[in-house]
Amino acid sequence: MNASVPTPITAWLESLRPRTLPLTFASIVVGSAIAAWHNSLKPGVALLALLTAGLLQILSNLANDYGDAAKGSDKEDRIGPLRGMQKGMITQAQMKQALVITVMLIAIAGGSLIAVACEQASDIIGFLMLGVLSIIAPITYTVGTKSYGYLGLGDVSVLVFFGWLSVAGTHYLQTHNFNNMVMLPATACGLLATAVLNINNLRDIDSDRANGKNTLAAQLEPQRARVYHVLLLSSAVLCPVHPVQSAQSVGLAVLAGDPDAGLSCPACTTQPNASRYETDAGAHGQGGAANQLAVRHRRGTQLKTDDFANRANKGI
Q1: Which pTM was predicted?
Q2: Is the per-residue pLDDT at 252 higher than 50?
Q3: CA gyration radius for the chain?
Q4: How far apart are the first and last CA of the chain?
Q5: pLDDT tens digits for 108-140?
Q6: Does the N terminus or the C terminus of the chain have fewer Cβ atoms within 10 A?
Q7: Are 102 and 65 in contact (CB under 8 A)?
Q8: 278 neighbors 222 (Cβ within 8 angstroms)
Q9: Phi, psi (5° rounding) for residue 177?
Q10: HEC states along the chain?
């Protein structure tokens, strides 16, 4: 059977690692889902974000193969699957060319995303800077004499880029509003992505040590790295969607007799109080019936909540 014989196509697929794409897409989906919860979903922006994130993941995979192969870290005795460069089917020159092409595609996709989503000059500048960092980070993970992946800093990078920036950035590009509540699911996504990196580093811990790749797992040693893995997973699961304070306020409102209190939960809206609604409506001349009803509803909910809290404090 010739099915097991490697070909150039299979070699490139092994280096591109399409199986890693769902991990990247998950963060974009989470950010878009929160935007949809806030009635601000923009499908075009979400699709461009998915495309850009997928290309960044591919860049990370290719750069990782190039850097490890150039340093001699990935050899035939490693436990994990061999990649195209390890098998000798992809040369360094070919991989460099693939990296350049991928960066160009990222620039096109990312530039289109910024052009479509950003409305202010400050947002354009900010996301251009984040885009440049998002390109530099996966390349310098293993490429170069001071690659931070060899210093045990890969976990922090994954938390930041796969969690905080991916989720919060996707949400902001669609809502144009930063809500600190987004950082909780963003952290959960980042921790889960870090757990994937850690389990791979646990698998390669012996070969990494032998080749001077001091990942965090290699520094912690197997037993403590397993404990660290459990902490990553449990912390991700325990990341709450809403803070305790917001949950308590909604509970008080429900007990006070407002069955729709959950709809006005501060954690579920980008504009958490009536005064914000009044200010925005007045500033834009849009104080229609719908906005007025929303203001009255929130005022009524707050009055009921305060009345219930006062009664509880007085023992009534």
Answers
A1: 0.74
A2: no
A3: 24
A4: 82
A5: 999 999 999 999 999 999 999 999 999 999 999
A6: N
A7: no
A8: no
A9: -150, 130
A10: CCCCCCCHHHHHHHHHCHHHHHHHHHHHHHHHHHHHHCCCCCHHHHHHHHHHHHHHHHHHHHHHHHHHHHHCCCCCCCCCCCCCCCCCCCCHHHHHHHHHHHHHHHHHHHHHHHHHHCCCHHHHHHHHHHHHHHHHHHHHCCCCCCCHHHHCCHHHHHHHHHHHHHHHHHHHHHHCCCCHHHHHHHHHHHHHHHHHHHHHHHHCHHHHHHCCCCCHHHHHHHHHHHHHHHHHHHHHHHCCCCCHHHHHHHHHHHHCCCCCHHHHCHHHCCCCCHHHHHHHHHHHCCCCHHHHHHHHHHHHHHHHHHHHHHHHHHCC
Tokens in use for 15? 């280096």
Round the average pLDDT of the chain to a whole number and report it.
79
> pLDDT digits over 59-97, tens only?
999 998 888 888 776 655 556 666 677 777 888 899 999
Q: Note the pLDDT of residue 105.
A: 98
* Token pair 């797992």 in the structure block, residue: 217
> For tokens 């850009």, what's the residue?
52
Count how many Cα atoms sit within 13 Å of the Cα of residue 165 in the half-sphere of its side chain: 21
Q: Which two tokens stand for residue 241?
A: 């969607």
List, in order, residues 6 or more apart from 8 with CB less than 8 Å away.
89, 90
